[in-house]
Amino acid sequence: MKKELLDEYIIAPNPDGVELTKTVEGLDHQGNSVRSQVIEEKPLTIYLNSQEIVTAMTIGDYPEYLAVGFLKNQGMLDSLNPVISVDYDDDLAVVVVRTESETSFEEKLKKKTRTSGCAVGTVFGDMMEGLEGLKLPTSPLRISWLYDLSSKINRTPSLYLAAGAIHGTVLCQENKALVYMEDVGRHNAVDKIAGWMDSHNVSGSDKILYTTGRLTSEMVIKTAQMGIPILVSRSGFTAWGAEIAVKVNLTLIGRMRGQRFTCLSGSDRLIWDVDSENGDDK
Amino acid sequence: MKKELLDEYIIAPNPDGVELTKTVEGLDHQGNSVRSQVIEEKPLTIYLNSQEIVTAMTIGDYPEYLAVGFLKNQGMLDSLNPVISVDYDDDLAVVVVRTESETSFEEKLKKKTRTSGCAVGTVFGDMMEGLEGLKLPTSPLRISWLYDLSSKINRTPSLYLAAGAIHGTVLCQENKALVYMEDVGRHNAVDKIAGWMDSHNVSGSDKILYTTGRLTSEMVIKTAQMGIPILVSRSGFTAWGAEIAVKVNLTLIGRMRGQRFTCLSGSDRLIWDVDSENGDDK
Questions:
Q1: A49, A90, A241, B193: which has the fewest C-beta neighbours closer than 10 Å?
Q2: Residues 6 or more apart in contact with residue A107 via CB below 8 angstroms
Q3: Interface contact flag, B117 A52, Cβ < 8 Å
C-alpha cells in the first residue's frame, strides 16, 4: 500500500535522504543515552542576477525550486522577463537565478529600504498589492477528494513522521497528491511548490494546496498569488487569513482531521458528495 | 484548581481578551453553519527613534514588550544607551522605542542593506556574532521541575486551547511558570518575554524558557542571548539548533510529553530527582 501511495506522487518526501536529517546523541527522560534523528537546517543564499536577495534557512533539498519560488512569491519575477538559468553551488550554498534582462528589483530594493527600513514590512506590502484585481477560478471541490487527500497525505512516509519539527505542503489535483515538499519553515515548503510550478509551467487554477501549517494572512496571500483557489490545513486560522480569503474568494478549509473540517471562506466551491454521519460531537 | 494555577503567573494568557480573537461564520464538514473562534493577526510597526525598523504581524497584546524585545533580540539595543521611552499608538499601530542618544543602527542598516540585500540574512549573521564569548551559567535543572512546568503550562487556559493556530512561550523559574506569552509567530512570543525581562531588569541566569515551537537555530540563539541557560519544548529539534546549543552549553530539551523528553545538549545541568518507571516503550 505504501508503494502504491508513493506511485501517485511526482515528488514525494524523502525521509531516508542522508543529507536531510542527522543522528544526534542525547539522553532520554531516564538518563539513558539515545540516538535521535533530527532535521537538518542550513543557510541558502538566493541571488537574483547580481543582487543578493536573502539567506533562507532550509533543509536543503530542491534549492533551485526554493529560489525560483521565493522570488516568484515575493513578486520579484514577472512573465515579461523570463528566468533563463538557475545555478546552484553546493559548496557555497548559493543559488543564482538569472532573468533575460536585469530586473528593476535592485533599484526598487534600495529605494524601499530607505523608506521602510527592513524588507519584512516592504515585502508584505508588496504582496498585498499583488492581490488587487485577482480573480480565482470557480473550480469545484468534492468533499470526497478532501477526505482522500487528507488520508493519503497523513499516511505518506515523510520527514515529519521520521523526525518531526518540519512543515509540509502538498500540491494536489482532484483527489491526487502530486508534489509533497517539506521544510523547516512552512514558507519554504510553499515556495518550493511555487518554484516547481513555475519551472514546469503548471497552472494553479485546477489545484488544491494542502499545508500542515496555520492559515495566516501570508499563507492565504501566497496561495492566491500562485493562482490556486483552494487552501486546506489540518491546523487553524487567523482572523486576517480568513478575511483575505473572503476578499479574493479563496476556499479556506482548516482544522481538517479525519472527516471533520471547518470552512471559513469560498464554500460555494464545495460539492457535498459524501454522506457524513459522524457529526454529532464537536 | 484553575484559579490557583493562574495565581502563580505574573502574566498569564488572556483567552477572553476581546481583541485577541474574533468569531467568524463558516461551515462545518456537514455543511452546517458554525461560528468559529479565530486568532487576530494585525500589523504592528516598530520604530527605533526616528528609524522605522519592521512591521510585525502580531495578535496585538503587549505591543511595548514586543517592540523592546524585538529590538533587544536583534542586537539593536545596548546597555550603554538605555531605553528612555516606549510609546504605543493604537490607531496608527505603531510603537516608538526611544533611547538616550540616537543609535548607530540607522547608519548600520543602510550599509548592511547595500551589501547583503535584505535584512533577513543580515540579522541572522548579527545574531550569531552576538554569541561569541557567551558563557551561560551552570544553574541546575531538577527533572521534577520539568514535569511540574509541563503539566501546569498544558493546563493553563490559553488562546491556544481556545482557538489554536498560535505559539506560546513561558518564562519559568524552578517549578514556577512566571510569564506566559502567546502570538501568531513563535518569535513574537519570545520577543515579548525578552521585552518584559528588559523592562523589569529581570536576569535570565536562573530561568527556564518553555516554548511550544520547534527548537531551531534561531530559537536557541535568542534564548542564549537572553542569558537563559535552559530551553524546553514539546516540539522537536533541528540539527543546527542542537549544534549551537552544544557550542554555547545551553541545556536543550525537546519532545517533552508527559514524563518523556529528549535532551540533546547540556545534560550536566540535570538533577535526576524523579524515579521514572514509564520508560519501557518509545
A1: A90
A2: none
A3: yes
pLDDT recorded at residue B118 = 35
The domain over range A42-129 is classified in CATH as 3.10.20.10: yes
Single pTM value for the model: 0.84
| CA torsion through residues A20, A25, A26, A28, sign | positive
A42 touches chain B (CB under 8 A): yes
A216 and B38 in contact by Cβ < 8 A?
A: no
Nearest Cβ partner for A41 among B26, B235, B238: B238
- Chain B nearest-CA distance from A4, in A, is 28
Tell me the three state secondary structure of residue B153.
helix
Q: How far is B177 from chain A (nearest CA, A)?
A: 21
pLDDT tens profile A51-97: 888 888 899 999 999 999 999 988 888 878 899 999 999 999 999 99
Residues 162-191 of B with CB under 8 A from A: 163-166, 184
- Low-confidence stretches of chain A (pLDDT < 50) are 110-124, 279-282
Listed residue (A154, A136, A152, A155) closest to A144, CA to CA: A152
Q: DSSP per residue over B107-123, as a string?
A: HHHHHHHHHHSSHHHHH
Kindly state whether B238 is in contact with chain A, defined as any CB-CB distance less than 8 angstroms. yes
**pLDDT of amino acid A133:** 79
Q: Note whether B114 contacts A: Cβ–Cβ < 8 A.
A: yes
CB-based contact, A142 to chain B, within 8 Å: no
Topology annotation, domain A141-271: Cytidine Deaminase; domain 2 (3.40.140)
Which of B28, B69, B23 lies closest to B46 in space, CA to CA? Answer: B69
Residues in chain B predicted with pLDDT less than 50, given as ranges, are 110-124, 279-282
- Which pLDDT value is given to residue B231? 98
Backbone torsions φ then ψ of A57, nearest 5 degrees: -95, 125
**What pLDDT does residue A117 have?**
33
User: Mean pLDDT, chain A, as a whole number?
Assistant: 87
CB contact under 8 A, B39 and A267: no
Cell numbers given for A42: 542550513
Listed by start position, the domains of chain A span 42-129, 141-271
The answer to whether the CB atoms of A239 and B118 lie below 8 A apart is no
Residue B16 pLDDT: 85
